[in-house]
Design goal:
This protein is α/β, with parallel strands linked by helices. The protein is 10% helix and 22% strand. It is built from 4 helices and 12 strands; from the N terminus they run H-H-E-E-E-E-E-E-E-E-E-E-E-H-E-H. The strands form 3 sheets. It has a 5-stranded mixed β-sheet with strand order 3-2-1-12-6. Strands 8-7-9-10-11 form a 5-stranded mixed β-sheet. A two-stranded parallel sheet has the order 4-5. The chain is globular, with a radius of gyration of 17 Å. Residues 47-73 are annotated as: Disordered. This is L,D-transpeptidase family protein. Residues 47-66 have a biased composition (Polar residues).
Amino acid sequence: MSRLGIPAAGLALLVTLTGCGGTGTGVRTADDGRPVTVGAYDGSATVSAAPGTTQARPGQASSNSAGPARLPGLGPRTLAEIPGNARQVVLVTGRGKNSSTSRVVLYRRTGTGWEPGATWPAHNALKGWTDDHHVGDLRSPIGVFALTDAGGLLPDPGTKLPYDQGRGFTINGTGFEGEPLAGSFDYVVAINYNHKPGTTPLDWTRPLGADKGGGIWLHVDHGGPTHACVSVAKQHMKELLRTLDPAQHPVIVMGDAASLER
């Protein structure tokens, strides 16, 4: 049963996930307003750790560094968008404006500055990034967004965020590069771009209107570009979920490197 009071299986047939997934066979999640076609998932698919992952854990600085006083790579405009009470920042830095690859670092604010955790490889939208996201543009929105709600096909791994577990997070089909999408929504965190805070990631409310897209999540990486979401390896999603704390007012700062420097 979802937090909306609708059986998860029924919700899976109704919900449109307009930011996540891929193009391919048997699934429609293309940020185009079409409903998701769901299918069975037997739990056999796994996502391997992407190369280049460091050994540090989120929220833990390396022993030889006190961490930067300011978040690196962010210009005054971007910094001004981060709420003053935010003590956790998921920083997603895209390789380029039109690139679908990026890196993710979780920072924790302390009395001496921002302590970085691991650097994780990630995917974003097929065509890169945009300041003006719309349905179907295949770009991830640039900006600073709160992280308030989580969920997934699998049981809660131990997060402090509200967690909606159920079959509504089932996905089948293939992505842009022919990779299977099964398991991509095992764990998700809603990115509060055009999302109503305090609702399941599956909620279809769009405060900015349907044309501005939505259903944009942090989710398990399937090995290729997304429609607008940000994806990291499965074990990293579990670490994020266990680390993010509503009391720390976590936000995600996301965009290509040049845009974040503004």
